[in-house]
Amino acid sequence: MLNNLVCFLNTAWQWILHNIFSISALAVSLLTLHRNRTTLEVKFSPGIDRTMDLSTEIIDKNGNYIHAYRNVFLVSVEIINSSPNDIAYYDLYAFDPKTYNFLEFVNPKAFLFSHPGVGVIHYINKVTFNILNVPLEQYGVFKANSYTKFNLPIIVTDPDEIKNIEP
Q1: Rounded Cα–Cα distance for residues 94 and 44 (Å)
Q2: What percent of the chain has pLDDT over 90?
Q3: Alpha-carbon distance 33 to 26, whole Å?
Q4: Contacts by 27-35 with C-beta closer than 8 Å and gap 24+?
Q5: In sequence order, what are the beta bridge partners of 72?
Q6: Mean predicted confidence (pLDDT) in 136-160
Q7: DSSP label of 67
């Protein structure tokens, strides 16, 4: 019995010595896989807020009015990138899940050429407003270990589409 145990341990030791590099490579690969796991946690606002007409505006860097929008629905998106890597996103868009029609969101980039430093604000009432964090592009990067919040003011111009959207 003791002879069998010694023989087994000798065989196991020989196998470990012959495969030490393979075992090391496997251990390093598993450790790297664990450290570089990519996870994005995405949270949408619980409902879609329909804003008052002309309460979402594009303003210049001095706060002067440039353009206002009608039929705007406001959605907030929070993204947590808890991974140690930057993660790129592409094709940020809004659509109606019932009809799969694409919806346009307010993008201040069109006004950057004539008014550098534009921003988007949303009036809650006649005095109080919020400065919205609207992405300038439909693509970008979530930095490693970061928290990102977007406000997406969605423009709906089709009267039939407005009826289908549930706040």
Answers
A1: 12
A2: 4
A3: 10
A4: 35/84
A5: 155
A6: 85
A7: E
